[in-house]
Specification:
The structure holds two protein chains of two kinds. Chain A is of the alpha/beta class. In chain A, 31% of the residues lie in helices and 25% in strands. Chain B has a single domain, classed as MetI-like fold. The chains are: A alpha/beta, B mainly alpha.
Amino acid sequence: MSHVLAREGEERPLLRVGLRSQKSGTGVDEEGHGVKFRLQGLCLYYGKDKILEDIDLDILEHRITAVIGPSGCGKSSFLRCLNRMNDLVEGCRVEGRALLDGADIYHRDYDVTSLRRKVGMVFQKPNPFPKTVYENVAFGPRLYGIRDRDILDGIVEMSLRRAALWEEVRDKLRQPALALSGGQQQRLCIARVLAVEPEVVLLDEPCSALDPIATQRIEDLLAELKESYTIVIVTHNMQQAARVSDYTAFFMIKGQGDPGRLVEYGETGMIFTNPADERTERYITGRFG
Amino acid sequence: MAPIGKEWLVRKALLVMALVMVFGLALVIFFIAKESLPAFTEAGPANLFGSTWDPGSGRYGMLVFLTGTVTTTAGGLLLGTPLALGLALFLTQMAPRRSRPLFGRVVELLAGVPSIVLGWLGFTILVPWIRKVGGGSGSGILAASIILAVMALPTIAAISRDAIEAVPDSYLQAAYSMGATRWQTIRRVLLPAARPGILAAVILGAGRAIGETMAVAMVIGPASVFPTSLTSPTHTLTTKILVEMGESTGVQRSSLFAMSLVLLLLAMAMVLLVRRVSGSRMPEGSVHA
């Protein structure tokens, strides 16, 4: 428990990510991974409903952070705060600060399209466009004005390779993406995100619609991807969180209609073997509601 | 046994009604074909599809009228489709959620405006205005196209709106999460995905424009000659039938039936085309695990 770092105030979650510097945006953990996202007192509202309350959390670079918690605890909404996809929800409002590399992404001058280019997202259900495999991956680069055929070809191949899909689809690039299997579609969606060279990849229960083998492939892929990207994954599969992540954040709501709060956050090994909060322990051991 | 007897009666009654409808349609086609037979046998196809209409000297050419129908319909679609698409996009993407039903209702009301009302407005306001601004007689292809655009607009807008609304939200989410702007999302994802439905909407609009008579008759001229400009008087198939119907006998009368037959075939071709177009639709949201 050498790097337990509790913050002042009883209601604050226990932070067990060891950070040398809590104040600046350049803190690093013991292995030298810097802070990518720093959330300070983040609150999220949909209209009058408070969805998230007072989230303080540092997400570290080149690490996989898992977000777990019971249904309705706001973990997906939390993920969508990080690339401002909540902006699309009418009546959505955010308080507090969300710093990406030290810059507040909710600041008036922060360009949301450049944010989403840096922070890619993979959704719960595979959602490739009804276009060809090639056009799905080329979508992002085309969006940013790349027209040169050779460059696009290169990006498509590289992205598909990174998403561990190239060998399976190299002869099917001109076929409709919707003809692929569910697992392939999901890896295609990952390739589509990687094609714009993001810095962070958010995954919202990416395996919940997949069979165990397809899930395994995605999990293997995530382990490779963290070398180059910062990864945040929402999952309700606790084994998955334990298997793939370096850090785990546990969210919970007190009762129906209450906002989601961060209960505990720390190294995944600690959270799953020796949680500090009784509620975390009850949840991960399955003795929950 | 009483309920079964009643059931049997209802089923047979419905069957009879369905048969009456099929039989009725067959009768319509048969009767029109039969009545137009003398025109084909006595005047001959070359005469019928020639460009001179002069019953006094035995010339029954409908090419002028066919040209009028095709050009006014095309003109109406050319003017109406962009407007209708813009309207459908506004209704689905831009209009504040609460006011959408209101705008939708306005479109439906526009569809309910009797064609004679539009024709009257065209005759009293549009034609004099075109005459003043553009010269010529004022009536003709341009005026008819504008009136047809207004008439086809609600049809195209309403069906396009349905097609756009049927595009799975997950496609749009994917595009936005890649950093696409609203316009990029509309142009690169929404419209391509809705294309079959929009095409069907345009074809249905064409079907409406082809058959429209009264409003066109009030602004088309009339004259049984090829138009020399967009603002010179001419005729369409429908308007020619309208003005000739009371005072024609023999082969002349039969040639009007031949025109009806052409109209009927055109309209039916549109209906069949719609089936083809919407039948080839991409499997929408056919995401499977």
